[in-house]
Design a protein that fits this description.
Layout: E1 2-5, H1 7-16, H2 22-37, E2 42-46, H3 47-59, H4 65-78, E3 81-82, H5 86-102, H6 108-120, E4 123-126, H7 129-132, E5 140-142
Parallel strand pairs: 1-2, 1-4, 2-3, 4-5
Helix pairs in contact: 2-4, 3-4, 5-6
Length: 146
């Protein structure tokens, strides 16, 4: 099994890393991930998570943009991006239909992340488990930096 890291982990990391370099911050997350999911597990981010992080760089005010961009680029270098492909699209369509029928949609980005994780048989590592725990069959690992 592997693990997809949700953007909430990196957002928390950015808030927490005021006195650390991007490389030190990534080392911290890597250590926590090894502790929570195992040192030999594959770790990655969903393609939509990469987009969310890059969107944050583009939206940052000028004085914060360089630090945010350094962290996002370190994340993109450290963790491979797992694609959303046709297999993931099929899982996503079923997941979306099931959640809609149950009246508990979790939002488009979280659905894409959950579908990608389910496709690969991976868990989702997040700081906000509320949405992901609604997905039947998805293993969710809560990770906080404190």
């Amino acid at each position: 099994m592997g693990a997809l890291i949700d953007s909430t982990v990196f957002i928390g990391l950015e808030r927490d890393r005021r006195h650390r370099t991007a490389i030190e911050a990534i080392s911290t997350v890597s250590w926590l991930l090894a502790r929570e999911v195992g040192p030999d597990e594959d770790i990655g981010i969903a393609a939509v998570t990469a987009s969310e992080l890059l969107h944050g760089v583009h939206r940052a005010i000028a004085e914060r943009r360089p630090r945010r961009e350094a962290l996002v680029e370190a994340v993109l270098d450290a963790f491979p991006t797992i694609p959303f492909d046709l297999r993931s699209a099929r899982v996503h369509a079923r997941l979306w239909a099931d959640l809609a029928a149950a009246g508990r949609d979790i939002g488009p980005h979280d659905r894409l992340i959950a579908a990608t994780a389910l496709t690969y048989g991976w868990c989702v590592v997040t700081s906000d488990v509320r949405h992901f725990r609604q997905v039947y069959g998805l293993d969710v690992v809560e990770l906080h930096l404190d």
